[in-house]
From TrEMBL:
<feature type="transmembrane region" description="Helical">
    <location>
        <begin position="146"/>
        <end position="166"/>
    </location>
</feature>
<keyword id="KW-0472">Membrane</keyword>
<dbReference type="GO" id="GO:0005886">
    <property type="term" value="C:plasma membrane"/>
</dbReference>
<keyword id="KW-1003">Cell membrane</keyword>
<dbReference type="InterPro" id="IPR000917">
    <property type="entry name" value="Sulfatase_N"/>
</dbReference>
<feature type="transmembrane region" description="Helical">
    <location>
        <begin position="112"/>
        <end position="134"/>
    </location>
</feature>
<protein>
    <recommendedName>
        <fullName>Sulfatase N-terminal domain-containing protein</fullName>
    </recommendedName>
</protein>
<feature type="transmembrane region" description="Helical">
    <location>
        <begin position="12"/>
        <end position="29"/>
    </location>
</feature>
<keyword id="KW-0812">Transmembrane</keyword>
<dbReference type="InterPro" id="IPR050448">
    <property type="entry name" value="OpgB/LTA_synthase_biosynth"/>
</dbReference>
<feature type="transmembrane region" description="Helical">
    <location>
        <begin position="35"/>
        <end position="55"/>
    </location>
</feature>
<keyword id="KW-1133">Transmembrane helix</keyword>
<feature type="domain" description="Sulfatase N-terminal">
    <location>
        <begin position="230"/>
        <end position="477"/>
    </location>
</feature>
<dbReference type="InterPro" id="IPR017850">
    <property type="entry name" value="Alkaline_phosphatase_core_sf"/>
</dbReference>
<dbReference type="Pfam" id="PF00884">
    <property type="entry name" value="Sulfatase"/>
</dbReference>
<feature type="transmembrane region" description="Helical">
    <location>
        <begin position="62"/>
        <end position="80"/>
    </location>
</feature>
Length: 569
């Protein structure tokens, strides 16, 4: 019997240590929540999860340690996502982004995966040690009694979890919160847990009678489309915005032709997007369907999965009715955020991904432009159909942390006396890559406009870079602030080779109107959906969700969802 005492003391000590770590996790969770009710909710869920693990493993210390490890992991991942992308961690993130493509993106951020690897190894070591040295409960009880006790404890605790999450349960005040609050909540654990219920698509249901307030389908004279129809090339510029919107960016290095008006420019200026720091796929969806994802609630951020298969209209679908062949050039694996399937739903005929190109993260926009030229020549040789290209770039993707000495002059030195070393490095990287984009776009325009066929070249920024969260600390100009939220403003530019193409100008243009504007510049028939889209664009001066005339906005949305049925079931 004496030999059992040291083992018992060791087990007791381990349980005490595990308990301390467990309560430290609950304390950390509580500190991160805004309201006492949220802190209590966090503690209750963590405690009940620990009891579930006890019921399964019969090991108290191991269960406490495992629950604590999961809580610390949740807090760390949520903090990283908030810093880099501006939103909390949600349960659907684990479903949609737990794949090798996401790991490839994270691999570009050593400051994330170094900590993640270290923390993961420590957690695994402690859990294995606890499992080996802790004896299960009920070793001397009959097996059937143990099973009955475990099943009873498991069912009772799971029932407790259901009660905690019940709309009429003890935390009902949290359950009925506006789900949009999750997107900006300062309570990471509560946001994550409530996203189980709330992160779903909410299709707008405007009053059907509201559609009659305005005419959305006026009879217009039939105008023949231009012959031949122009080739249309759209370049989504990753993490790109006009740096002149920053108060400090008054130096020549901030200038680029891609932001300037010229003789071939049909429209250009500030573009209102619906993402910050990341979420390119939401900008892809908003551009191609002319439906901004925020109108679908929090679940709209997963548009390639839950919205793309349900759309009724898109730019490629309209172009197909007019004889176009639509081609996507995607610089990542086509499985990333369901891109291949989403682009098929949008109506593309061909999808080239990185399994063909084998781009590296350091591949430049000029490398991508060279691949486009090859594909464009091949496609143009095969068919006389007008072509539509959708091209995504990647070089401007973060992190923007390359050492200054690795950059070409004049970006190989601090450019802004008012910035610290880190933000100077971020800005120099951004501007160096921006000039690479400018060079690639100039080459692309030369290729398109030097041919005999008319062409339209469009490029726009999908969202601003985050600079690992530091972008929020760089002051914006008064002009940028006057447009509204300065952090969701990028740029767009439409150039055409035809001298008789119409010109357009707006104080700011919503991304949901860009596709329709391209159709008008190209001189193509609009169809029912894009006719209404153009009317809304003109009636609210380029504004969409932030249109000040709410009756007009409701009427437009009623026309879309009640008459055109833009989203299927």
């Amino acid at each position: 019997m004496q030999r059992g005492k040291p083992v018992g003391r060791l087990q007791g000590s381990l349980i005490v240590i595990a308990s301390a770590i467990f309560f430290a996790a609950i304390w950390s969770c509580s500190l991160g929540e805004q309201l006492p009710s949220e802190a209590c909710f966090c503690g209750c869920v963590t405690g009940l999860v620990a009891i579930v693990f006890v019921a399964i493993t019969r090991r108290i210390g191991f269960s406490l340690l495992l629950s604590a490890a999961l809580m610390f992991a949740l807090l760390a991942i949520s903090a990283a996502k908030t810093q880099y992308l501006g939103t909390s961690l949600f349960v659907p993130d684990l479903q949609y982004f737990s794949n090798s493509e996401t790991l490839a993106v994270i691999a570009q951020y050593p400051e994330i995966w170094h900590y993640a690897l270290t923390g993961g190894l420590i957690a695994v070591f402690l859990l294995l040690a606890m499992w080996c040295f802790e004896r299960p409960l009920g070793l001397h009880s009959a097996w059937h009694k143990r099973w009955v006790a475990q099943i009873f404890a498991f069912v009772l605790t799971v029932g407790g979890l259901f009660a905690v999450f019940a709309p009429g349960g003890p935390f009902k005040i949290l359950m009925v919160n506006n789900p949009w609050g999750l997107m900006v909540a300062a309570s990471p654990t509560t946001s994550f847990l409530l996203s189980i219920h709330h992160m779903r698509v909410i299709v707008p249901q405007p009053d059907p009678a509201a559609a009659d307030r305005y005419e959305w389908a006026p009879v217009q004279p039939v105008i023949a489309a231009k012959k031949p129809a122009p080739d249309i090339v759209v370049v989504l510029e990753e993490s790109t915005f006009d740096p002149h919107t920053l108060s400090l960016c008054t130096i020549p290095q901030c200038d680029a032709q891609m932001f300037r008006d010229d003789a071939q420019t049909n429209a250009h200026g500030a573009l209102r997007v619906h993402a910050w720091g990341g979420g390119t796929w939401t900008s892809e969806f908003a551009f191609l369907t002319s439906l901004p994802t925020p109108m679908f609630g929090p679940g709209g951020i997963y548009a390639p999965y839950n919205l793309a298969p349900r759309i009724s209209y898109s730019l490629p679908r309209l172009l197909k009715t007019q004889g176009y062949r639509s081609i996507a050039i995607y610089p990542l694996d086509g499985n990333f955020v369901n891109a291949r399937h989403a682009y098929n739903a949008y109506g593309f005929d061909e999808f080239y991904d990185n399994n063909i190109f084998h781009f590296a993260w350091v591949s430049t926009d000029l490398d991508l432009e060279h691949e486009f030229e090859k594909i464009y020549r091949d496609e143009r040789a095969k068919t006389d159909q007008p072509l539509f290209f959708m091209i995504l770039t990647m070089r401007q993707h973060g992190p923007h942390n390359d050492a200054l000495e690795k950059l070409a002059a004049p970006f190989n030195q601090p450019l802004f006396a008012s910035l610290d070393e880190t933000r100077n490095r971020n800005m120099s990287n951004y501007l160096a890559r921006l000039h690479g984009s400018d060079e690639a776009l100039a080459a692309m325009q030369k290729t398109l406009f030097s041919g005999s066929r008319p062409a339209v070249l469009v490029h726009f920024g999908d969202h601003q870079p985050s600079f690992d969260g530091l972008m929020l600390k760089i002051e914006r100009t008064a002009a940028a602030k006057a447009l509204g939220d300065p952090y969701t403003v990028t740029y767009y530019k439409i150039d055409g080779s035809s001298a008789d193409s119409p010109r357009f100008s707006y104080p700011t243009l919503d991304l949901g109107f860009l596709a329709g504007l391209i159709i008008d510049v190209a001189g193509l028939p609009e169809g029912a959906f894009f006719q209404a889209n153009a009317l809304m664009r003109e009636r609210c001066g380029g504004r969409y969700l932030d249109c000040k005339d709410k009756e007009l906005l409701e009427s437009y949305q009623s026309h879309l969802f009640n008459r055109l049925h833009v989203i299927g079931r």
